[in-house]
Amino acid sequence: MDATEYDLIVLGAGAVGENVADRAVQGGLTAVLVEHELVGGECSYWACMPSKALIRPGQALRAARQVDGAKEAVTGTLDVAAVLARRDSFTHDWNDDSQVRWAEGAGIAVVRGHGKLTAPKEVTVATPDGGEIVLRARHAVTISTGSDAFVPDIEGLRDADPWTSRDATSAKVAPESLVVIGGGVVATEMATAYASFGTTVTLISRGGLLAGLEPFAGEMVAEALREQGVKVLLDTETTRVHRDDDRVTVETGDGGAVTAQEVLVATGRTPRTRDIGLEVVGLTPGDWLETDDTMRVKGFDWLYATGDVNHRALLTHQGKYQARAAGDVIAARAAGKPVSDGPWGTHVATADHEAVPQVTFTDPEVASVGLTLKAATDAGYRVRAVDYEIGYVAGASVYADGYKGTARMVVDEDRKVVLGVTFVGPDVSELLQAATVAVVAQVPLDRLWHAVPAYPTINEVWLRLLETYGRP
Question: What family does this chain come from, according to its entry (predicted)?
């Protein structure tokens, strides 16, 4: 069979794969995206966009009820059918025509079907019509296939037909009751969304909530979920799950049991690397792919991995950041141009190490960047944590009556720069970019004093954090 040649083949046409291909094409290469589902991927259809569309209406309603004068005008509950219809508008009813038009308009070829490595720099695509297309890469293949929900080995769980994140974000109706197993971002966000729909929600976590973030973040989210009507069971092991007709019973290690219409398992992710031909090039199917900072898979000069599959930072924006670096460096290497692969160089993803921003869209939101106090201490930094109650800031008291929120700034005491920042509170995601700039640019504290926050906005918390730390 004759093969079609491109400079770059990208397995997976989600947001990450699209960005790799786009940057390579902008660098003068030809590129093809191989996709067996929807062009645009998980983020567009089953994760970032639909999940936030589900969460936002409840946040808006609660925000109105936190302001005297506005709350008196709120007389009803969410129109769940309207919320779901709005969600559908963001996914284009799970139609990717517009994404395909964008790719083709950007000069990127799109091949439908399931692609597998069949030789070095060779991908064979099983097409929907039962045929095969062989693609060969002149320079590189990039794996951007993402990750799937991990379903743990709990007795009866798989047989109970559990929801995963995809089911939760694409549901056509809200169940009357839902058990959420997990304590991370997906678990807390979906508990927030479905509680706002009037669903009776129970969240079961074998530890606390939002492990890996500052401890007060999980504590504040747990308190807020309980205020929103969610039954939150912490430090509780799920031991058995079984379904009887249209009901699911979840049993716990303390002898308890919860019965609901649906159960959502939100206990982590697993890489989509099981059926893409990794064994052909000496890699293990099902493994995460280890890369250097230019996203090249270790041990190869032609194979790259971007996004979730490399396990560096399972966040769409970090995957796209990696993709920009990878697309640029693939083009540079193909043209024999110099590679800027030093720290913070053009062709590397340095920020993946200690400057990763992320938002958990619960209510209150959790926005963080960089290192937590524990992570900084474990990394050997001499640090000081500075905390401030955001509700004390004038802008916060205007924003919402009784605003509750906390900010923490982690300072490297030797260099006097910010290593990490965490905000918990309503709409704190809008504070995050300033924190990210401070961490990435390693802005000295004495210079931050000259970054004057507008009054009265919640951004004034920056001044209060600096005042609490003290003048240099």
Answer: Belongs to the class-I pyridine nucleotide-disulfide oxidoreductase family.
**Domain carrying residue 24:** 3-40+96-148+271-351
pTM over 0.90: yes
Domain identity same for 253 and 393: no
Residue 223 lies in a domain: yes
Are the C-beta atoms of residues 411 and 383 closer than 8 Å to each other?
yes
Cis omega (within 30 of 0) for bond into 162:
no
Same domain for 26 and 170, yes or no, is no
Three-class SS state of 450: coil
**pLDDT tens across 323-349, in order?**
999 999 999 999 999 999 999 999 999
Cα–Cα dist 141/123, whole Å: 8
Does 52 show up as a binding residue in the annotation? yes
Beta pairing, strands 132-143 & 3-11 = parallel
Same domain, 280 and 347: yes
Average pLDDT over residues 251-262: 97
Q: Which residues pair with 407 in a beta bridge?
A: 388, 423
Question: Do 220 and 245 reside in the same domain of the chain?
Answer: yes
76 assigned ligand-binding residue: no
CATH number of 188's domain: 3.50.50.60
Residue 308 is assigned to a ligand binding site: yes
Q: Please check whether residues 342 and 447 belong to one and the same domain.
A: no
Q: Are residues 35 and 120 in the same domain?
A: yes
Decide if 412 contacts 382 (C-beta within 8 A): yes
Is there a binding annotation on residue 183?
yes
Q: Is 189 annotated as a binding residue?
A: yes
35 is in an annotated binding site: no
> Does the annotation flag 58 for ligand binding?
no
User: Using alpha carbons only, what angle is made at residue 40 by residues 311 and 299, rounded to the nearest 5 degrees?
Assistant: 35
Measured in degrees and rounded to the nearest 5, phi and psi for residue 48 equal -50, -60
The response to whether 340 counts as a known ligand-binding position is: no
Is 457 labelled as part of a ligand binding site? no
What is the rounded average pLDDT of the residues 173-192?
A: 98
% of the chain with per-residue pLDDT over 70 = 99
**How does pLDDT run across 156-172, given as a tens digit for each residue?**
999 999 999 999 999 99
For the segment 294-320, the average pLDDT, to the nearest whole number, is 98
Question: Within this chain, do residues 377 and 460 fall inside the same structural domain, yes or no?
Answer: yes
Residue 126 covered by a domain: yes
Q: What are the pLDDT digits (tens) for 17-43?
A: 999 999 999 999 999 999 999 999 999
Which pLDDT score, from 0 to 100, does residue 2 have?
A: 59
DSSP state of 308: G
Is 103 domain-assigned? yes
Count how many domains the chain has: 3
Does the annotation flag 105 for ligand binding? Answer: no
d(CA 5, CA 53): 40
- Rounded mean pLDDT of the chain? 97
